[in-house]
Known about the structure:
Number of helices: 21
Helix content: 40-55%
Distance between the termini: 149 Å
Mean pLDDT: 85
Amino acid sequence: MDELRYQVDLLGAMNQKLTNEERMYQMICDVSGSAFLYINFSENQVRVLGDWNFFFQDVEVKDVKDLAKLYAKAEEKYVLPFRDLLFLEKSQRNTDGGILRLKDEKMWVECTVSVLYDEGGNATDKVIRFKDISKLKNQNDDLAYMAYYDMSTGLYNKNYFIRLLSDYVNRAKQENAVISLLSIAVSDCRKQKDGRNAVAGEEGVQQFGKFLSSFQKENVIAAYFNRSIFCIAVYDPRGNRTVENICGQLKERIKTPFELASGQKLMLAVRAGVAEYPEAADTALKLVQCAEIVMQQAEKDGLSGIRYFDTAVLDELTRELHIEKELQEALTDFSFDLNFQPQYDAKEQKLRGIEALVRWKGQDGIPISPLEFIPIAEKNGSMVSIGGWVVEESIRTFSIWKKKYDLNLILSINISSGQYREDGFTERLLGILKKYGINPEELELEVTESVLFEDFRTAVEKMSVLKDYGIRIALDDFGTGYSSLSYLKGLPVNTLKIDKELTDGILKDLNTGIMTESVIAMAKKMGFETIAEGVETKEQLIRLKELGCDYIQGYLLGRPMSGEDIEQLLK
């Protein structure tokens, strides 16, 4: 009797223990934030645990067949892999997992399955766990977006774009296909961002980026690189998916302004360079570089220019790199020469002065045109050093002639914008004049209008200081570019040099003739002297005299010549 009571008490204690453990497991499941599904195959027993209603509120699972109700809740693209996961025992696997999205709540769920088998390989027990990972997934999506996209425009960023472009190139190698790449610069946005209205510039870039996103489709990707540079790659261009079509739409779009949130209207202009695989390059990075090169070359075509990478562009680039390399070597010993071109009184053809002009021969001894090497020197910054040499060497030479021939002439020297902006420019110039005993009034500095528009106020202040010392200021190449008679009234200049373009057209084109006449008349009323550049015919000279031009410079009366030839003229 006692033995029977002992066994009953023992069973009761064991049941109590099971009940306590079951309660503990239930509580663990409840606080886990997950839902569990337990299946006992031998008894066809199915039990749900944890926060089941959070995931599948209206789904009741009573036996194994009811699992079909679960994968019906997944978004369509996840149905098949989810079904395979729920019935893991069919593939005789022990554990597996996956991620899916529920189509009603848009919840991201991690599903993990574990199956136990008996010695015969038959499934005995299965546990399926569902965990909400929406927050983590969204955070990862945000990080992925930041890693792959530009936040301001919504386009791909440079790094991810080149990665995708590399995939294009690898694919094109296998399929023997063509890839077109456009490098696009939004010129006016860049000016806006560097100027006072930076907000307008940024918004302009964003709107332009959104416009470019409309091109993105299968086999077309677009990216924002930096500042105002964009890129579009087209795989196997054909039909509407060609660079010609894209460039046409770009040109059409920029005909109308972009309207900003402030109500301001912003006109944009673009330059584009086009390079193609495999003609231009065989890797993604080289293809981008080629497109950028021709995009920069498109600057020479003016705003909204489009250039294609070809042999001529490559030859031009090679030539520029060669000149740039030789320029750097020439700067070590300043192996440059000076030519001088005379300037004459228009009425009496009396010598007014001489303009110093830098000349340079390459290592092969062949002269390189100033029109070719000066823009390169200005772009890479070496023009400041070259200009400094020209200033001292021309003043030194002029001082020798002045003492030798008792000259009463003016020496004109071109000053680059880089030289003009340098700190201490005025002090160094005055020091050189003092060193060689030249009166400041005998020196005329020629500056271009671009100097004024980089920093108008500072440029004018420096002009005023130079003029106060007696140095003459000439505004070079007047009549082209930014030219406007309206701003002349505030400039401390002595002379306007009328651009050769106006001189060439003075007899050929009525409008050019009227413009030249207006410039000369206005200059006279404002007390400026005028020098016409590029005078090559007697007819031009006669007409300029009739208009009241003061001085002329050009091949008609004097070409640029060496120091020895100028000295013969001075004798």
